[in-house]
């Protein structure tokens, strides 16, 4: 078990989701740019 | 869902994600580099090699 309390886990989780959605947004833009350049389907 | 972080230590999870993501990214970029269509470095019609391997014939030997 990790040593996080419930509230700490909640706090980390919200930061984690923020980071993940940022990563997702960048990845989507990158893939869209690439697809408009050279589609792979 | 957040209780996940009471099960797994965030530091280990974040380190694991970083290592896995870096490996995946390197793999994909090198795979793309090895293709003709998505090689963004080599010259476009050079058949993938940045430097062409075509060699001219030897000039005639001087007498």
SSE sequence of chain B, one letter per element: HH
First-to-last CA distance of chain A: 44 Å
C-alpha-based Rg of chain B, rounded:
24 Å
Assign a percent range to the helix content of chain A.
over 70%
Helix segment tally of chain B = 2
Major interchain interface with per-chain residue totals: A-B, 14 and 12 residues
Oligomer: heterodimer
**Residue share in β-strands of chain B:** under 5%
Instruction: Give the low-pLDDT segments of chain B.
Output: none
First-last Cα distance of chain B: 86 Å
Could you explain the architecture of this structure?
- The complex is a heterodimer of chains A (41) and B (63).
- With 41 residues, chain A is mainly α.
- Chain A has one domain.
- Helices cover 78% and strands 0% of the residues of chain A.
- Chain A contains 1 helix and no strands.
- The longest helix of chain A is centred in the middle third of the chain and has 32 residues, at 6-37.
- Chain B is rod-shaped and about 85 Å long.
- Chain B has helices at 4-7, 10-33.
- Chain B has 2 helices and no strands.
- The N and C termini of chain B lie far apart (86 Å).
- By secondary structure, chain B is an all-alpha fold.
- The A-B interface holds A 1-6, 8-10, 12-14, 16, 38 and B 1-10, 37-38.
């Amino acid at each position: 078990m990790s040593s996080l309390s419930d509230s700490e886990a909640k706090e980390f989780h919200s930061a984690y989701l923020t980071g993940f959605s940022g990563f997702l947004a960048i990845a989507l833009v990158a893939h869209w740019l690439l697809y408009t350049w050279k589609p792979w389907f | 869902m957040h209780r996940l972080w009471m099960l797994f230590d965030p530091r280990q999870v974040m380190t694991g994600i970083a290592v896995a993501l870096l490996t995946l990214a390197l793999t994909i970029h090198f795979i793309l580099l090895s293709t003709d269509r998505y090689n963004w470095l080599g010259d476009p019609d050079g058949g993938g090699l940045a430097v062409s391997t075509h060699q001219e014939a030897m000039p005639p030997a001087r007498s």
